[in-house]
């Protein structure tokens, strides 16, 4: 498989250089992507492809089940760099259907390694949905998975919006923070309603604005 991909790269770069002759020379000078994408490592969710974008358009951080945590130095470093160095205008948190991490969090089996600890936030969300989502116990596995995917994206959006660097960027230059779900069965992106109540906005400005 590796050598097949290596050979495919030769065809790709020749075709791309022919159709977009200025692209690679431009990329060699630096990057100025307008968007930061926080998504899942799943091979079926390649952000540049599914957005119809080109190299250099999207700055990316991906991990198992698109978990966005204020305690994860990897994602927080990416957010810091994207906001302060690249000056992105938008941050997108993307979940997707048929997510293996979500399916694991909905079950009670031990996965092993570091994954059980990594998926703990999803299990917390699952417990919360069981308490607050009307008719949760009567939902099928697919319906529960969609609910958990959406809840995970909305939680991630909330974490991003409370990042002090993002709070400042939203106030100073109107950076947008969005939540979307990618349907791997149709190839479509669906934007979620991640609006904030006035009280949440006040809390964010009072508690998370630093400096």
Question: What can you tell me about this protein's structure?
Answer:
- It is built from ten helices and five strands; from the N terminus they run ααβαβαβαααααββα.
- It is globular.
- By secondary structure, the chain is α/β, with parallel strands linked by helices.
- The protein has a five-stranded mixed sheet.
- α5 packs across α7 (120-132).
The helix/strand class is alpha/beta
Strand content: 5-15%
Amino- and carboxy-terminal Cα gap: 50 Å
- Percent helix: 40-55%
Adjacency order of strands in the biggest sheet: 2-1-3-4-5
Listing every helix as H and every strand as E from the N terminus to the C terminus, the arrangement reads HHEHEHEHHHHHEEH
How is the biggest beta sheet arranged?
5 strands, mixed
Nearest-integer average pLDDT:
96
Radius of gyration, whole Å = 19 Å
What are the SSEs and their pairings?
Layout lengths: L1 H18 L3 H6 L6 E6 L6 H4 L7 E6 L9 H12 L5 E7 L3 H7 L8 H4 L1 H13 L8 H21 L2 H10 L2 E8 L4 E4 L6 H10 L4
Parallel strand pairs: 1-2, 1-3, 3-4
Antiparallel strand pairs: 4-5
């Amino acid at each position: 498989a590796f050598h097949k991909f290596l050979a495919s790269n030769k065809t790709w770069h020749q075709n791309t250089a022919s159709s977009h002759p200025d692209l690679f020379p431009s990329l060699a000078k630096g990057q100025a992507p307008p968007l930061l994408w926080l998504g899942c490592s799943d091979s079926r969710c390649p952000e540049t492809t599914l957005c119809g974008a080109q190299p250099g358009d999207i700055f990316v951080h991906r991990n198992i089940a698109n978990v966005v945590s204020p305690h994860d130095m990897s994602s927080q470093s990416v957010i810091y760099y994207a906001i302060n160095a690249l000056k992105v205008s938008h941050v997108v948190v993307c979940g997707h259907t048929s997510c293996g991490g979500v399916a694991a969090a909905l079950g009670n089996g031990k996965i092993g390694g570091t994954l059980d600890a990594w998926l703990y936030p999803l299990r917390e969300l699952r417990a919360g949905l069981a308490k607050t989502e009307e008719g949760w116990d009567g939902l099928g596995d697919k319906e529960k998975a969609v609910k958990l995917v959406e809840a995970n994206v909305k939680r991630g959006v909330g974490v991003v919006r409370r990042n002090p660097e993002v709070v400042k960027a939203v106030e100073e230059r109107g950076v947008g923070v969005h939540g979307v779900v990618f349907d791997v069965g149709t190839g479509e992106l669906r934007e979620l309603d991640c609006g904030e109540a006035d009280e949440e906005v006040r809390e964010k400005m009072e508690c998370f604005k630093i400096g």
